[in-house]
Design goal:
The complex is a heterodimer of chains A (114) and B (119). Chain A is mainly beta. Chain A is built from no helices and twelve strands. In chain A, strand 10 and strand 11 form a beta hairpin. Classes of the chains: A mainly beta (114), B mainly beta (119). Chains A and B meet through strand 5, strand 6 and strand 11 of A and strand 4, strand 5, strand 9 and strand 10 of B.
Chain lengths: 114, 119
């Protein structure tokens, strides 16, 4: 069974700092990878996704993630965070065999200090 | 506006009672899902349905039941057998393997959630 690990449970940064949130998955086959974000009081929404091709994926609001197959990782990055990035971030994986199910990580709470 | 609606937003129930959470989507998606979100545990899959009149258990189905009689609706019943029902419940949908493009068929869209409290 596939699993997802997000080792950072709570990250606190100052505005303008650079961000990297870790995500590792355990599945040996082809995968689809996702980052979702949950802003306070809002729906969970898609930040970015990887299906195939360029392993560097760009998403909304200046976020990007890099798929490193050899490390089973899909870390989320942003060069300069803003106070409005305060949210909970979830990494998710799906095996790419017509499988619609996603397996989510436990989430990382990001707090940005103005 | 296309999207997913969940009602009610807050729900209180007495111990020993069954309660049904509503989830409706107007995205014409084939697949629908129910998750439970607890602090520090992420989203855990309760049940999912890939097509009308069919559904499968997720990772934590015990104490829950679902039905999928219509494409747009996927209600979740939390039964009295669920030992720890107080949680935030999220419904989601995706186009599905037969209904979506190859690069988006399993991209899930989420509703606003229902917070259930058992008194």
């Amino acid at each position: 069974a596939q699993s997802v690990s997000q080792h950072n449970h709570h990250v606190i940064l100052s505005e303008a700092a650079s961000l990297e949130l870790g995500c590792n998955y355990s599945y040996g086959g082809t995968v689809n990878l996702f980052w979702y974000v949950q802003y306070p009081g809002q729906h969970l929404q898609l930040l970015l996704k990887y299906f195939s091709g360029d392993p560097l994926v760009k998403g909304i609001k200046g976020f990007e993630a890099e798929f490193i197959k050899s490390k089973f990782s899909f870390n989320l990055r942003k060069p300069s965070v803003q106070w409005s990035d305060t949210a909970e971030y979830f990494c998710a994986v799906s095996s790419n065999f017509g499988n619609e199910k996603l397996t989510f990580g436990t989430g990382t709470r990001l707090t940005i200090i103005p | 506006d296309g999207g997913i609606t969940q009602s009610p937003k807050y729900l209180f129930r007495k111990e020993g009672q069954n309660v049904t959470l509503s989830c409706e989507q107007n995205l014409n998606h084939d697949a629908m899902y129910w998750y439970r979100q607890d602090p520090g545990q992420g989203l855990r899959l309760i049940y999912y349905s890939q097509i009308v009149n069919d559904f499968q258990k997720g990772d934590i189905a015990e104490g829950y039941s679902v039905s999928r009689e219509k494409k747009e609706s996927f209600p979740l019943t939390v039964t009295s057998a669920q030992k720890n029902p107080t949680a935030f419940y999220l419904c989601a949908s995706s186009p599905g393997f037969w209904g979506g493009a190859l690069t988006s068929y399993n991209e899930q869209f989420f509703g606003p959630g229902t917070r259930l409290t058992v008194l």
